[in-house]
Design brief:
The chain has helices spanning 6-18, 25-39, 43-65, 72-81, 83-86, 93-112, 128-135, 147-164, 202-212, 229-245, 247-252, 255-260, 286-295, 311-315, 320-325; strands spanning 118-122, 139-144, 170-174, 187-193, 213-224, 268-271, 277-280, 299-306, 337-343. The chain is an alpha/beta fold and 345 residues long. The strands form 2 sheets. The protein has a 7-stranded mixed beta sheet, sandwiched between helices. A two-stranded antiparallel ribbon has the order 6-7. It is globular. The structure holds S-adenosylmethionine. S-adenosylmethionine binds next to loops. S-adenosylmethionine (SAM) binds at residues 123-125, 128, 144-146, 149, 176-178, 193-195, 198-199.
């Protein structure tokens, strides 16, 4: 059983105070609704979430305190990969932990529910999720095009083997996902975190991934959401800024064709006449991504969203709204992050 959270304790105190007072019916109704929404969180998912939180706390310690196997420049690179962990003054630490764990909990549950789990961590970066998945007992194929990140990931592995007190079955490989074909058709879960947008031929990559997946195997993709107004604005202004310095981009850019994913298959990398390159990455909304998964052999299964409550509201103690918003029909699709899961029939 879960312990009663501070939110639930506070809620019952408020309810007691309001009891019988005129004009308080609406407040009572809203508070009841909030509680009802909280009950919709399945316990199993809570368990997976707490495992993710536990892993996050360990990784955070590694990033901040240092991994004795990394030299200072390697440690610095790892820190800059995790700005939300490193810049503690900017963000309440619970935001990063909550968002991290809510996005990873689905993968954890899928791994725990699968016999002989085999995970393809595509675009694994410094390998953090590969350690998490292998720690849960999965065999992991971890691929990234950055030789430097893979080198550091290999060095980090010992630290996580000590933590999990067992060898981790991870094969780290340097490769470009646009060219790479996994040498298996037995993958049970492909994990893509903040990667697909950077792939040049997303259709081909997902078709290849589907071929590598066993029947009933899954793909889970998480990234920033084009339906989120704040992210949309940031991406639009990044492009407006680049137009000033990159003439090729200014000529070829078409923000709306990126939004609708019309006339393009994925990311484009443009080098300007002044040698300033620009990553014309192809982001998604959960809808456009579900359509693409449908076209490439997968059947979309569910969508989850996170990143609703800005840091200012967290600091005011309104963090429970994150849970509420992620369950509100319609409004939930505007979260900063989506996670789309699809299955191979
Ligand atoms: C934002 S990082 C995310 C890393 C990791 N998935 C995570 O969540 O921490 C994106 C990663 O994708 C890798 N990447 C981008 N395009 C790639 C490609 N075409 N092939 C292989 N890796 C790629 C980058 O090298 C980088 O490590």
């Amino acid at each position: 059983m879960c312990r009663e959270s501070p939110f639930l304790r506070a809620r019952s105190q408020v309810l007691k105070k309001l009891k019988g007072k005129t004009g308080s019916k609406i407040v009572v109704f809203v508070l009841r609704e909030l509680n009802l929404l909280r009950r919709l969180v399945p316990v199993e998912k809570d368990k997976a979430r707490s495992m993710a939180l536990h892993f996050y706390a360990f990784m955070k310690n590694e990033v901040i305190q240092g991994n004795p196997r990394l030299d200072s420049s390697e440690q610095q690179r790892l820190r800059s990969h995790y700005p939300l962990i490193s810049k503690l003054s900017h963000y309440p630490p619970e935001i990063a932990a909550t968002i991290y764990s809510s996005r990873r909990s689905h993968a954890i549950k899928a791994i725990l529910d699968t016999e002989l789990p085999y995970v393809f961590d595509a675009g694994c970066g410094y390998g953090s999720e590969s350690f998490l998945f292998a720690g849960l007992g999965a065999k992991v194929l971890a691929v990234d095009m950055s030789a430097e990140q893979i080198r550091i990931a290999r060095k980090r592995q010992y630290y996580y083997e000590e933590h999990f007190e067992k060898p981790l079955d991870i094969t780290f490989t340097v490769a470009d996902l646009d060219e790479y074909k996994p040498d298996t058709n037995n993958v049970s879960l492909t994990w893509l975190a903040s990667v697909l947008a950077a792939v040049r031929n997303q259709n081909k990559f997902l078709e290849t991934t589907c071929e590598a997946t066993r029947p009933k195997g899954q793909v889970m993709i998480t990234d920033m959401n084009l339906f989120n107004p704040l992210f949309l604005f940031k991406e639009w202004s990044r492009r407006q800024q680049t137009k000033k310095s990159n003439l090729e981009f200014a000529r070829k850019s078409d923000f709306w064709s990126m939004i609708r994913r019309r006339g393009r298959t994925g990311a484009r990398y443009l080098t300007g006449n002044n040698a300033r390159s620009f990553d014309d990455v192809q982001f998604f909304s959960s809808r456009s991504l579900s359509d693409l998964l449908d076209d490439t052999g997968f059947v979309p299964k569910f969508v989850d969203f996170s990143g609703f409550v800005p840091p200012q509201l967290w600091k005011m103690g309104l963090d429970h709204l994150e849970n509420v918003f992620s369950r509100l029909p319609f409004l939930r699709q505007f979260g900063y992050f989506y996670l789309v899961a699809a299955i191979k029939q």
